[in-house]
Structures are given as structure tokens and as C-alpha cells.
Amino acid sequence: MSADLGKARPLVWSEPGRTTQEIKTGGWRTRRPRYVERPAPCHVACPAGEAIPAWIARAAVGDYGGAWEQIRQENPFPAIMGRICAHPCEAACNRGQYDDAVAVNALERFVGDWGLRHRAPEPPCARPAPSVAVVGGGPAGLACAYHLARLGHGVALYEAMPELGGLLRYGIPEYRLPRDVLDAEIAMVLGLGITVHTGVRVGETIPWEGLGSYRAVFVATGAACPVKLGIAEETSPGVYDGLAFLRAVNSGARPSLGEQVVVVGGGSTATDVARTARRLGAAVTVVALEAREAMPALAEEVAQALMEGVGILNEVGVEEMVVSDRGLAGIRVRRARLSVTESGAIRPVFGEGGTETLAADALLLALGQLPDPACLPPDLRVERGLVTVGEDGATAELGFYAGGDLTLWTRSVAHAMGSGTRAARAIHRALTGMESRPARPHPGASRSDQVVGFADINGDAFPRLARAERHQREAADRIASFVEAVAGLDETQARPEARRCFSCGACTRCDVCLIFCPDVAIRRLDSEGYEVLEAYCKGCGLCARECPRGALVMVPER
């Protein structure tokens, strides 16, 4: 390409000696091209608010440090989330309609692991005396504390359990999230100077009134009350709460369940419980009300469970338990469909047909959890099992904010972190009167006509490429231990995968608009981007049609 291609040299007109600099054609125009920065669908779908195309673009050129810093502007845990996130960004990815969605989750893990290897935890720094209390050291509380500390606030973090992490530590098995990864990323958050009080249950160890010296309080105590089946003999010996079982195993215990275990539930917790019980030597069957393709658990988790020998019965519900003098002996199931009560409890609606009896030495319930109102400040408003909050997490009680599983029916780590992030910025705004960053829509708030759709992508600019896949250990090896089951990408996989990203809605200075303009009406700027020479642009729209990424739109002439 000629070095002066972008300098908009005049074209010679048909009459000798006359050029486009003299014969201006812009007056014909009824529309004009405009360069825009439009939200990519992956960003809008990300509950944590990550600028996904921006950090992937950095990773694509080997700037892993820049990618790591970009992610941590929103999400302090790229190595954690790169392992456990449900990655709704990939379901929204435009590339999924072209060949395969970009492996955003695998790339995030690669960048996060790079950060753990190359970025030391920040040394503890002096902070002002804590002016904000965060109650709950799970994903929402940690995210809130992280962003408040970055904004210069003193933060005191209260956690009832002996260690921080909440669901990350006590609810997710180590074969999915190794503890050294969890500990390392939490250490980076605490390095910002956060004061930590573990083993303190606010409302019991200290009263809620004891937090009165703080200017704001963020409550993220999670949802710890298990949803029950609602049938007789549910308290029989051998019937256990699945999340309590995971908490025990993750704390080092190895409960004896017997040879035959049945897990009730169709979500990620149910698959975690089943795969953990399988690693303890039991034969495991999952009973789910949902059809296989409708199970809330991630498809890859379901596939891994099946490969590990877990049986799954779909569209069936538990009708009754078979109990002997020694406790649980089995359960009777029948064809059913799922129903949800007003309180959020899942209940079966049984259909026609007979029952089937499943032998069971242990029954593990993984039907979801609800917040415990007894653990909350007395003045917080609770409706249908959730604390009522505004968009920014503010409650009706002045100075109190809430987030995470207390406020969300969508129970995912990414949603919890996003709620903590939004609350931190709202608290900063309330305490200082200043915005923490230039305002931009939080995920889901962008107008649908602004988001770059697949129709806006020019597929001719992109070769079809296979998606990079993470290597899984053999199933027989996986169930023999709690060693991490899925490996990360290496650099030879990550760089090409990052280059698969369309960079939807972002100008990458690819020169396509400049090359295709028939009127030489586009000029590349020395700084960034391009400008349209309106005196010559006839508004034909060819530049916008050929733009690979939807970063050019045609707007009506003034």
C-alpha cells in the first residue's frame, strides 16, 4: 500500500487540468457517513461490565499486561472468572453466527493466569480510616470493596466464615477453581489496604447498630437457606443440603455417602454436587425437572458430568421417599415438568404415568437457596425473598446498599460482582458527589438499535477459523482426584483466538473505508481514526457497507 494513500490526493477530472479539489461533489449528498463507537453485544451481555473487545484487542497483539489491566478496571478476578463464569458474552458473540463464538472465557483465563505469574500483589498501602463497611466476603462484597478501595475509600470487610471468598471458596469445587488461584487473586484485592474481619457474623457477633460509625454499608450476605422439596420425610437421615455438602468437602472433609447417591436439581450447583460425590467414590444419578437442553447448568458442565459417569434423568420429579428404620432407602420419581412458586421455590407438576424407584443411600438437594431475613438489618425491605434495591443497589434505608444473591434471582458470580461494582460507584457518588468514571450504560442498558448486530458485520473481511478449545484431562483421571479438570490455553492458542474477535463497533484503522471510497473523500488522521472530507463525499454509503466491524453508519444530511 502506498505510504501516502490516506492523504486524499485529488483525482484528475475528465477535463484536462481540473481535479476533485475544484469540482466539489458534496452538495449531492442526502446522507453522510459517521464514525461511531458502538457497544459490542458481548459487552452488553457481560454482567460484570467488561470492555471485552478492548482487552481482547490488546491480547491479540501480545499486550497481556494491558489486557489484564483493562479487565481489572471492572473485574478484579480474571483468573477466577476465566474458570467459572457462565460466559453469556459467548452466547451473544456475533462470530457465533459466522463460524464459532470467540472463546472469551478461555482468553480471560489465559490473561488472568498471565497476571498471576507476572504481576505481584500490590504492597499494602495506607488508606484512610474505614468509612464504608462491606458485610459479606463473597463475589459481590469483594468486588464492592475492591472498587471502593481503588476510588480512595477506607473499607472494612466483615465475613462470617473463617476465610474470604464466599461461594467461590465454599461452593465451587477445587477441580474447577484451584485454591491457589483463588487465594492469589483475593490477595491482590486485599493489597489495596482493605481491613478484614473474618469469623464475624454481623447481627450476631456484633449488632447491625455497631456499624453506625460508617458512612455507608454494603450488605452482601448471600443466600444460605436451601430450598426444600416440600414433601414428607424430607428430614430423614440420609437427606442432605447439596451446598452444605460442598462446603464440607471444600473445607477438607470427606463425608461418607454410601454407594448410591441421588442429586436433585438441574443447575450448576447440582452438577458440582454430583461430580464431587463421584470423586468420593459414589455412583451418582441427577434428577432434573428440566429437559436436557433446558438445564440451567452450563452445557459443558453437563457434558463433563456425563463423561465422568454421572447419570442424568431429565423431566422427572421426586414424588416421595422410601424410608426404612435405618433412614433413606430410595426415592420414587415420576414424569413431571417444572413450576416456580411466587417465592421462587421450584416445584414439580406431575404428569401421567407410573413411578420409578431409585435406590439411594444419600439424597443431596440442590434446588437453589434463598436469603435468610433473620440475618439482615431489620429495616431492609424484603419482597418475594429478595431485598428491594434500586438500579445502583441503594435500599430504602439511608446509607445502606445491597447486592449479590440478596437482590438477584440470576444466581451467577458475574451478576453478583456486577452488583457490587455498581454499588461501589453509587457509594462513591453519594459520599463525594463525583462520578467514578465517564458515564456509560451498564450492561443491558444500551438501546438494542445501538448494539452492533451480525448484519452490521462484513464477513468478507474475515476468514473462517476454528475456535481454540481447552484440553480436558481424561475422565477416569479426573474422578480420581480434585486436581483441576480443564487446562488453560497456551500462547500459541490464545493469540490466534484473540485475533478471531470481530472487534464489533470499534474502528481498528484497517483502511477499508479509505480504500473503497470512490471519491477519495476519507483521510486518515495522524492521531487516531479518519475524517470524512464533506466537500467531496456524495453519501453513497460504500464505506459503511464495506466497514468490517459496524464502526461506520450513515446518518441523514443536516
Reported for the largest beta sheet, the result is: 5 strands, parallel
Strand order in the largest sheet: 4-3-2-5-19
Overall structural domain count: 3
CATH class of the largest domain: Alpha Beta
Task: Describe the global form.
Answer: globular
Helical fraction: 25-40%
CATH fold topology of the largest domain: FAD/NAD(P)-binding domain
Intertermini distance:
35 Å
**What does the radius of gyration come to?**
27 Å
Low-confidence sequence ranges: 438-448
By CATH, the architecture of the largest domain is named 3-Layer(bba) Sandwich
Strands, count: 22
Number of helices: 17
Question: Based on helices, strands and strand pairing, what is the structural class?
Answer: alpha/beta
Structure commentary:
The protein is of the alpha/beta class. The protein folds into three domains: 78 residues, Alpha-Beta Plaits, CATH 3.30.70.20; 321 residues, FAD/NAD(P)-binding domain, CATH 3.50.50.60; 140 residues, FAD/NAD(P)-binding domain (3-Layer(bba) Sandwich). Helix content is 27%, strand content 18%. The protein has 17 helices and 22 strands. Strands 4-3-2-5-19 form a five-stranded parallel β-sheet, covered by helices on one side. A five-stranded parallel β-sheet has the order 7-15-8-9-10. Strands 11, 12, 13 and 14 form a four-stranded antiparallel β-sheet that branches. Strand 8, helix 11 and strand 9 form a beta-alpha-beta unit. The longest helix is centred in the last third of the chain and has 20 residues. It is globular and about 100 Å long. About 2% of the residues have low confidence.
